[in-house]
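Justification of computing resources. Each target in the renewal requires a structure prediction run like the one illustrated here; the chain below, 495 residues long, is used simply to show the kind of job we budget for.
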Amino acid sequence: MSKYQENERDTVPSKKCFNGDKFNGVYKGKPREFVLEKSENNFFDKELCNKVIAYFKKNNISWWGGKKPTGHILSSQIACLNHLFPIRNDKNAVLAIAKMICEDFTEVLELKNDTDDTRAFISFEVVSDNDYLNECKEGKNPTRGANCTSIDALILAKHKNGTVFLLPIEWKYTEFYNNTDKSTEDGKDHEKGSMGSGKERLCRYSNLITESEQLKTLPEYKSSVYFFEPFYQLMRQTLWAEQMIAHKATETIKADDFIHVHVIPKENHDLLKDDLETNKWRKGYKNGTETGSLESIWKSCLKDKKKYKIISPEDLLSNLEKEKQEKLIAYLLERYNFDEQEKIINDNRHAEILKDLQEIQKLWDTVIDPNVNEWKVEEQTDVIWLRVFQNFAKMQISFDKQGGPEANGYLFEQLLEIRKEILTIFNLPDMEEEILTIYNLPNNYEVPKINKSINPIRHIQHFEMLYLNEVPEMEDVKDIVESLEVYSYEYRKGS
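Resulting structure tokens:
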């Protein structure tokens, strides 16, 4: 389990968007605390649930994991439906989404692959009319949502130059992948050691890759990047889009070009691997010669890199009319974007802290004036220091809950900046530490010039209080500031 997946599994059930569901629903034969008792509570509202169920039934679409909607709260299928199904009939809303993918789109078109009474501007679990990827047995046609390449969601958009684009959307939530070679797997229907399923896949896709106008040809496909997730899925969807365009004369959905859209939460670094520079423990994806993030490695496999776009759910929907979609947006923020809400809150705390530190510095600068009442200034700064440390404590608590620097480098940098500003006020040097929290202020070993008669333990304990999820009271803040003042004095005296 990844850190992001674990965090979502632990925190999502406490959110107030599941209609009081008791959880412990059954998944893989056992009650689970991350599975809802009633799957209808996994949707934006009951009306949406009923509409989705009717849509799947009328269009013969298979559900992930069973014959009905899952109660699993981390289901990416449910996440995709919650984000897109409520707006699929709103042409302007769907166009707003399309413009987030490419601003040159001028119109979205109704998709005719769904039944007459369910047609709209977004279709789900989309397949081709015919099997171009050699995936179906006994000459059967593809089945939506099962045993073939299905597209989570599809938009058909018209470009300003008149061409029609497929926008196949692959939706991810907490997924991440282990290093399994799809080209050497035995599979459940083959003997152990036979690599039966792997050979079938190589036979199925190798020629299509070689003939592809988008995927780069490789000297050997066995154990290549194309047969490791998440690229195995991206490879198949790219081939699907190309074949849809090549056979548009006989396909229900007709298009001239495509942009492949990969929707992934920004917080899912285990899938994105976009933090390789800051996370020394993270292992990147490989393409045979390079190591890198999901985006960099997949684009290295593409001839036209503009035909692939990674976007987060919140960015994809950021152009929606806020007033019109107010309830939906509020639900999605509560359900899926806790970190985005936290980011806004922490940004405000960060700004307030920096403003308060400037105010403290101004007040202290006035003390050199003999006409200024020093005790009054101290009273004023005590109040501001309380606010500073309370906000700083809350930011650190949030930082720790989100998984530290590996999970949120942005907040990490904010905390670094605040710590540096606090130390600057006291004329203390900034220290480069692996764990950069306020309680790791310079001690006797870090700053030898500080008078060793000062006991660092006393003030460090005050700062540990912040780390231990407690917000300081006024008396604690006074002790903290006094300790800093003593350190500042002794450091300057020693230097």
